[in-house]
Amino acid sequence: MNWQWFHRLGSPRWFYEKTDAWVPWLLILAWGLLLTGTVWGLGFAPMDAKQKDSYRILYVHAPVAFISMACYYLMAIAGAIGLIWKMKLPYMVMKSAAPIGFAFTVIVLATGSIWGRPTWGTWWEWDGRMTSYLVLSFLYLGVIALQNAFQSRDTADKASAILALVGTVNIPIIYKSVDWWYTLHQPATLKLTGESTIHVSMLYPLFTMIVGFYVFFTLVLILFTRTEILRRESRTQWVKDLATGTVRKDEVAS
Amino acid sequence: MAKSPSLFTATFRRDLLLAFRHKGEMINPLVFFLIAISMIPLGLGPDKDLLMRIAPGILWVMALLATLLSLDNLFRSDFDDGTLEQLLISPHPLYLSMLAKVLAYWIATGLPLMLMSPLLGVMLSLPSGAFIALCSSLLLGTAAMSLIGAVGAALTVGLRKGGLLISLIVMPLYVPILIFGASAVAEAALGNPFNMQLAVLGAILVMALVLAPLATAGALRVSVNG
User: Whose CB among A138, A147, A164, A224 lies 3.0–4.6 Å from A76's, allowing a Cys bridge?
Assistant: First the structure.
């Protein structure tokens, strides 16, 4: 079978040139969805019975939380692909995903804290979910720190990939262990996980925001990866041509 | 003709011998453990009730930090003099040599920590029922921490200024061990059974026994070739 299409996917240049066309569309889509979702959620969705208007931060908090966890797995899988198939592009994606994921965890922790103040009366609680989420942010920090510690980029890539994979095993363990720890010490006071009982009129703006944030995340990841491609491939002819604006006549369209 | 020792035995014996030749390095984490525990009553006041309540957690946190302290020494000297490269290019499975090194390391660092912990428990007014839990949880926990810490040590051995980086990498991986270890001692202090926590610690240890040497071997290949 002709595997050329698969191998072409691993070419940084192919990625860069293909995403040239995608970025404007993703930008429009992200703006559109996020704007719609925000206005809908903040303005038009009904007030919550207990929390009144302060629940509306859910529309930022929940989607970003989902994505931050998905981003970690994306980062780990990209690292695994790079380790197994020894390709350049997955490592670039992994390196780009780490700071984005970390920034998202910071957003979730901050919005969660702000949400907790009027509803729980406290900025922070050491319950199962929050504690294991904090450890997730530490895992991200570890990968970012390891990336920047090595002189040789190749070593940095492989080492971070190994660390990301080890962390993957640890995430479910952390989540479970903190759950058990918490229930050992005191019974759960408030479970804000009643998402299944959310009303439809609140669910639709939430879906919009989730999709919108996913599109936004894709956009940001692509942009970061493109920068990383330019940085790493800066010695190749095509990047030099791109930088100087030269157009070559004997270009092979890829 | 005498049967030559296997790589596992040879590596284990060598590492243990080297560790005991540098008794100073072995003592360091123990002294840290002792001094750090002593700081707690100095900082928080000598109220026995308070100390009794926080003793399980404090003992475990300090044991964890003491383990982190000596982690860098696991591969450092072998990396510097080229022994690590020889291990990597030898035809024997790297898994076994990693296991041997970590076992020797644990006997030199984790085991003494565990043996010293009852003394420190007395200093922090740990209730008498909790001492068995303390020792058994530390026995399982320090072994698991040595195995998992070896991965972090392998990742950073190539760096000259590893420093605090290894702690940053390894500490999130230690979180489940800390939670169950401290919980075991806390439950025992209250007079409750602590079998569940020990079982989970054992499970974590077994999983680390299987997976950690593989990750360590991979990380060492990356570090030494880098």
Answer: A164
